[in-house]
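step: validate -> pass
step: tokenize input -> pass
step: predict -> running
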Amino acid sequence: MDVIVVGGGIGGLATAAFLQHRGLRARVYEQARTLRPVGAGIVLAPNAVRLLRRLGLTDALARRALKVRTGWEFRRWQDGAVLFSQDMTECENLYGEAAWLVHRADLVDVLLSAIDPGTLHLDHRCIGVRQSATHVTASFEGRPRALGDLVIAADGIHSPIRDSLIGRIPARDSGLCAWRAMIPAERLPDRCLSPTQTLWLGPGRHLVHYPVSAGRTVNVVAFTPASPGETVESWTAEGEPEDFRREFAGWAPPVGDLLDAVTEVSRWSVLDRSPLQEYVHGRVALLGDAAHPMLPFFAQGAGQAIEDAGALAAALLETEDLTTALAAYTRVRVPRTVQIQQASHDRAAVNHLPDGQGQKERDHAFTTRDSLRDSAWLYDYDAQAEAREALAAVAGRRRAMGGGVGG
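step: predict -> pass
step: emit ->
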């Protein structure tokens, strides 16, 4: 098996790491000339961390990230009253892993340490793929083509490979825009440095903050109503710190103190897309945001890319029949990711309720739930075990139909 991975982000690097870990040949082609430290904070939940542990990466993660210890906090916008607090010390007992707070660039570095550096090819912009019954070829602008058995399109939310296969997925205006800022820890009070994911909820908007990079930086992300005609969808698009502060004027003083420390902020439109029902097209498999772009309200974008990588690698490593492996990948990943896409979609409306009866009912519901145990469907999931079960089901069905396996 010779695998071509297009895209050197979290999903692409994780895929190469899983495949190389078990001796398969995997080459990564990334369009950027350098892997610059872009992006911001990421929450890695147990469903992703257990897969990274199988690559031997948790020690490297611990040097760059923070375990969520004191937990999650939901606070009311007006006065900072704690609506809900979840103690995360039980997370490892329930699910075998903690949740971690990490900068995207740090996670990329951790994944890079798990692949052969000679298999990473930068400055390779993929301009097309062509496939036959026996192989697939990826073409790159101004570079030699790459020939392999399988192309994994991990080339992001605007995936050119996906668009060439099925056309562009229509994007709908969600009515929201996102803000992201990174603040050096020394500029903030101690209350902002606790390894806690704090969510401030208010009418029409919410704000999240937590430390990353082993506590050296605090990540801030917020969602507010978009301006009319706002359509730029890029996490590197620049915003104005003063506009950011204005969006949260009148909120509790700790929010103002946090935003007063912001000197640079990115701002972009949050666009919504319908789920796909097929991630495999011949010898091309979509992965990560290329397969399932989701609204960023469930903190599972990176986690689902890692799950994709682990599941696809598990299927490829358990059988020599590529068709069977890819069928298992689709069977196991589409329902899982569609479920999380929908959960992410629903979360925005819950977070942004206007003050009133609905908001009071939401806040009361926080006090009656055990969020950690309620999240078993998400955190207890083992993507590789599920992929192997799907592989067995697909192989059994093919045998029953007389198709055989291993051809």
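step: describe -> The chain has a mean pLDDT of 92.
step: cleanup -> pass
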